[in-house]
Every structure is written in structure tokens, then in C-alpha cells.
Amino acid sequence: MGSIFSKIVAGEIPCYRVAEDDKHLAFLDVNPNAEGHTLCIPKNEVDRLFDLSEEDYAALLLFSRKVALALKKTVPCKRVGMTVIGLEVPHAHVHLIPLNTMEDATFGKKVQIDPQALQALAEKIAANTQELRMRN
Prior knowledge:
3 helices; alpha+beta
């Protein structure tokens, strides 16, 4: 049985996509620490981040960087933090979290965002991700 993220990649579970390439997918966290909290995953299910090959590890971080730049352009924040915990879902993933305070990174504080607002935010981040790709 695949992880929930593998089911998202396969289209079995919907998500709020913000970026995608052949090997990666970025989507909004539906239980976010802050508005814009985004998850970046490899499409190929690998349990732990450090189980990725060096090439796949580097590619995931480069993909995450592009998403973080678009996220910073979209969501007002002091900076975009990145964290890897990996206990909740057995599929390597990176959390990108817009930060204004240290509490935003603790995973103890969650915000509620309605589905329409999540969709609109995903579209804005996706547009900024696309714009950054055009320039690079």
C-alpha cells in the first residue's frame, strides 16, 4: 500500500498543487503551520530523505528552492523556513513554511484556511513558480 503522498501523486487523492516537474510535486499542506505551508516530495516513494540517492536528494532540494522563492514572493513573511521531520508520512518530504515568528515552525500551532482560499493561494504560488522558471 502506498503512502498518502503516493496516492496524491497518482491522482487518487486531490491536492492544492503549486509546482510539478517530472520527478517532484509541491502542494499546500491542508493542516498548515502558516498560510502557504507547502510540502515538496519526490514522486517516487522513498521512506526517508537520506535514503534518496545523492542525485535525487540534490534534485529535491533544488526543486524545493524554486518553490520557496515563489512562496516568498506570494506570501508576506520574514523568511521561508525549511524543515524535514518525516515521522508523519513514510514518504520523503520537505516542509516549506512562511515564517514570521519561531512559533510558525513548531508544528504546535496550526491555522485554518478554507478550501477556496487554499485553491486561490495555490494558483498564485504556481503562477510565481512558473514565472521564476521562465527567468531561470
